[in-house]
From TrEMBL:
Pfam families in the record: Ribosomal_L27A
Keyword annotations from UniProtKB, A to Z: Ribonucleoprotein, Ribosomal protein, RNA-binding, rRNA-binding
Protein name from the UniProt record: Large ribosomal subunit protein uL15
Keyword Plastid belongs to the record: no
InterPro entries: Ribosomal_uL15, Ribosomal_uL15/eL18, Ribosomal_uL15/eL18_sf, Ribosomal_uL15_bac-type, Ribosomal_uL15_CS
GO biological process entries: translation
GO cellular component, one term: cytosolic large ribosomal subunit
Function: Binds to the 23S rRNA.
Gene encoding the protein: rplO
Subunit structure: Part of the 50S ribosomal subunit.
Disordered: annotated span: 1-53
Family the UniProt entry places it in: Belongs to the universal ribosomal protein uL15 family.
Biological source species: Bifidobacterium mongoliense DSM 21395
GO molecular function: rRNA binding; structural constituent of ribosome
Basic and acidic residues: bias regions: 20-44
Length: 152
């Protein structure tokens, strides 16, 4: 019976395997723990305390060396789509009424943007322009060909 009592696992006989329990390393607690600098290397600003991102050691940083944006852009500026008289004569060979909608249908301009007709080319037929801006030279050429302009 005595042999059987010794083979039974009992609470007071339990212990972890050798090497399983290790003390944690207490860094920076004197020369004996982890050395003089505790794994932080030698002297310098970055070792004493972290510097901000983009800091170049006192040299003028890149973001200050780059040129600055000058002026401003108006949020209310209107960008006109340009159509010349020469392209009007190609799109409307018989003349007739020209509106923004008809120009969009022909694929000359995109919908939703204002249109301006410029005077490059010759007006061979009479155009009736409605709802578009017209330059002074284009207006003169269209009226000389027998057309009319009504800006809306």
């Amino acid at each position: 019976m005595a042999n059987e009592d010794q083979d039974i696992l009992q609470m007071h006989n339990l212990h972890p395997a050798p090497g399983a329990k290790k003390d944690r390393i207490r860094v920076g607690r004197g020369e004996g723990s982890r050395g003089k600098t505790s794994g932080r290397g030698d002297k310098g600003t970055k070792k004493r305390y972290q510097v901000r991102p983009g800091f170049e050691g006192g040299q003028l940083p890149l973001y200050m060396r780059l040129p600055k944006l000058r002026g401003f852009k108006s949020p209310f500026k209107k960008e006109f789509q340009v159509v010349n008289i020469a392209s009007l004569t190609e799109l409307f060979p018989k003349g007739g009424e020209v509106t923004v909608e008809s120009l969009v249908e022909k694929g000359a301009v995109r919908a939703g943007f204002p249109v301006k007709v410029l005077g490059d080319g010759e007006a061979t037929t009479a155009f009736t322009l409605k709802g578009v801006k017209v330059s002074a030279s284009a207006k003169a050429k269209i009226e000389a060909a027998g057309g009319s302009v009504s800006e809306a």
